[in-house]
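[[Local backbone shapes]]
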Amino acid sequence: MIASKNHGEAVAEGAIYFRYVAETKAISYADLRAILDERDLRSREAILPMIQRLVELGPSNALVANLADGQLEGGKRPILIDPASLEQIKFIKEGEFDEVIGTPTLKVIGDAQVAPAGSVLPIRTVREEITIEAILRNFIGRNSVEQPFAYFRQVSHEAGWVSPIFYYLHLAGKTRKEAASTLRANKNAKPKCRAELIKLLNGKRSLYAKLGGNRLTTFNRIVTKANFEVSDLRQAKAICSALTGMTTADAGCFDQFHLLLSHCLKLWEASEGDRDLLSCIRRAASRLDEVEYGPQVPSG
């Protein structure tokens, strides 16, 4: 027994007590060492046969069965077992593994069926690193992504909170309340980003910028001209600035706005990373995201 707290003078926190003949007292070093050695010996005896078998077969001919998630792991050849089938599969714990008498045996109790060809999905690569460029590019292109909620969470780690988020919440099927709760529980999120994103989720922050002057002129040209071209960095910045003045009344032009932002993003890529243009694209894309997908994300 290990004492978790002090209790008078008889019990000291952290002390290990052992039952000796007719008494209980703090364990001696020799007895504690014997218990630990016995535990280590049992662990080695349990794992050594597995290691010996792995050495005999070689890594290229062996797999490790992870019964927790149903994956057979080994080298570059993972084999997945349908979770629904795991409960129907039982492996023998004892058997004859003498290769002189017979080959190693694995007994499966239950029915084995051939899966329909359509139920076997191709291997998919999931992006492990989500960058601000990926967040923008996939939103602007309206691309379906693996783990869309991870894209939302990544925004709270970026330098600056202005990024499209509602599109990814819509793909993930999350509510604004769930998203805000995730941000509050994320201890690694940047405090300012977290605070501003929560304001945006609660409708207390907007990326709308009222149109006027040159921005209004540019915006009117965009919505009245079907094939509005983006020729240089200066024009791209002007377009992005004008797009922050869009409203839900401009829904008929959303496809055109996506196309314009795609052209601006390509110009940014060719500009060797113009920081001002990237900032403009982020604000314009975030405003488009706010008016296009914001209404599609429920509050609670």
